[in-house]
Design brief:
It contains 22 helices and no strands. By secondary structure, it is mainly α. It folds into two domains: 184 residues, Up-down Bundle (Growth Hormone, Chain: A), CATH 1.20.1250.20; 209 residues, MFS general substrate transporter like domains (Growth Hormone, Chain: A), CATH 1.20.1250. The radius of gyration is 22 Å and the shape is globular. About 5% of the residues have low confidence. It comes from Thinocorus orbignyianus. It holds the Pfam family Sugar_tr. Belongs to the major facilitator superfamily. Sugar transporter (TC 2.A.1.1) family. Glucose transporter subfamily. Keywords: Cell membrane, Glycoprotein, Membrane, Transmembrane, Transmembrane helix, Transport. It catalyses: D-glucose(out) = D-glucose(in); alpha,alpha-trehalose(in) = alpha,alpha-trehalose(out); D-fructose(out) = D-fructose(in); L-dehydroascorbate(out) = L-dehydroascorbate(in).
């Protein structure tokens, strides 16, 4: 059993180097944007609009990567898809390092975003298909754990490294992933779907050890493998469309609960609370994310997926409601202001108010990040890797990843407009309402997949 787990963990580790690269790509913009806004070179210096695009264009690349990943994962397999996505990662950072103008920076960010989109789809699928039910939740949660570790790594490295050297560092995890994945097996489910039974047995021998009943597990997988292709007409089948609707809704709620908006506020909130070093503040936030995502990974196979989504949703609803209260008190006259950036500068705050209740904003921020990391960060990615039938896994996962990244882009880019239309407090109370809706949706529609094989989960959705 120890040998079995060691090799399984090794395969999972090789795969989650992809999400680590993904985290570095997401975190790269935070320490780099302030540096590029002050750089002497006018061709590389970013203004406010360019800085916004530099931060958010990675999500557009990721949306395209979700579509491409959905095709690759079914056509060339899980392992080769992961190895291929290291190419746009490395090439993207090469473009950034050699950038002579802003458009080269954008192009490099799009390429790293494309690789991130493929990674965010393929890695959960790979891990769910190589794992056995007792550890699938823990290993699946490591995807999000490595993403937030990568973000934190970019924040910490950005304190000392200049933007070009930081790009060089960010390219390392994808190179190591390419090396490690070349020694790892393809997933048994994909191999059996390709009628490669001997290779599937060899993969199971590597993953489960020599003493497990490989033939029995093969028969279990074969019973649920549909060799014929997927026709669009089959999406009328509840076993196909029900998990797809659940997966898309999970990704929608993950973004509209406001995580990107809250992270966008983080630097200003810490400054208002007398945290003068905003880079260190980002490190604090990143550390909270890593700690609570690790807690989720350790307990998810004991508590179950739904319990964590409930707890996470309630914590996020309360903390965003407190955010709304904070801005209602600090910016009481916001509706009468003609300054569209008043929410950010806090110039119209009541005298002394922001300093006396700044603790409320900091506590709300910490609670929200902890709550998200505990449930709505890792669990949706885990659940979508578990609920789709094999023949629909590529296209369904692609639809979910596309939804996630398009919503991330819209929330990031349109946040200013939300503030202008609803005011700061109204916007955060809207996020709080979405958090409440996410809990209700979980209660009625999300199945509990703890301890079940992927074949049992497929059978659940085939029931009338």
């Amino acid at each position: 059993l120890r040998v079995q787990n060691t090799k399984l963990y090794l395969a999972a580790f090789a795969a989650v180097l992809g999400p680590l690269s993904f985290g570095f790509a997401l975190g790269y913009s935070s320490p780099v944007i302030p540096e590029l806004r002050k750089i002497n070179d006018p061709d590389l210096r970013l203004d406010s609009s360019q800085a916004s695009w530099f931060g958010s264009v990675v999500t557009l690349g990721a949306a395209a990567g979700g579509i491409l990943g959905g095709y690759l994962v079914d056509k060339v397999g899980r392992k080769l898809s992961l190895m291929l996505c290291s190419i746009p990662y490395v090439f993207g950072y090469v473009v950034i390092v050699s950038a002579q103008n802003v458009w080269m920076l954008y192009f490099g960010r799009v390429l790293t975003g494309l690789a991130s989109g493929i990674t965010s789809l393929v890695v959960p699928v790979y891990i769910s298909e190589v794992s056995h039910p007792k550890v699938r939740g823990m290993l699946g949660s490591c995807v999000q754990l490595m993403v937030v570790t990568g973000i934190l790594g970019a924040y910490v490295a950005g304190i000392t490294l200049k933007w070009r050297w930081l790009a060089v560092l960010c390219s390392f995890p994808s190179c190591i992933m390419l090396l490690f994945m070349s020694f790892m097996p393809e997933t048994p489910r994909f191999l059996l779907n390709q009628n490669k039974r001997a290779e599937a047995i060899a993969a199971l021998c590597f993953l489960r050890g020599p003493y497990a009943d490989h033939a029995w597990e093969c028969r279990q997988i074969e019973a649920s493998v549909q060799e014929e292709g997927l026709n669009l007409s089959e999406f009328k089948n509840p076993s196909i469309y029900r998990p797809l609707v659940i997966g898309v809704a999970l990704m929608f709620f993950q973004q509209v609960t406001g995580i990107n908006a809250v992270m966008f506020y983080a630097e200003t909130i810490f400054e208002d609370a007398s945290f003068k070093d905003s880079r260190m503040a980002c490190v604090v936030v990143g550390s909270i994310q890593v700690c609570f995502t690790a807690v989720a990974a350790l307990i998810i196979d004991k508590t179950g997926r739904k319990v964590l989504l409930y707890v996470s949703g309630i914590i996020m609803a309360l903390s965003t409601a407190l955010f709304g209260l904070y801005f209602k008190v600090v910016l009481p006259d916001q509706n009468n202001s003609s300054n569209p950036h008043v929410w950010f500068t806090l110039n119209s705050a009541s005298p002394g108010t922001e300093s006396t209740i700044s603790w409320l904003a900091v506590v709300s921020l910490g609670l929200f990040v902890a709550g998200f990391a505990l449930g709505w960060g890792p669990v949706p990615w885990l659940v979508i890797s578990e609920i789709f039938p094999l023949k629909a896994k590529g296209i369904s996962s692609g639809a979910c990843v596309l939804t996630n990244w398009v919503m991330a882009f819209l929330i990031t880019k349109e946040f200013n407009d939300f503030i202008g239309f609803l005011t700061s407090c109204g916007t955060f109370w809207l996020f709080s309402a979405f958090c409440c809706l996410s809990v209700i949706f979980t209660a009625f529609y999300v199945p509990e997949t703890k301890g079940q094989t992927l074949e049992q989960i497929e059978a659940y959705f085939r029931r009338p």
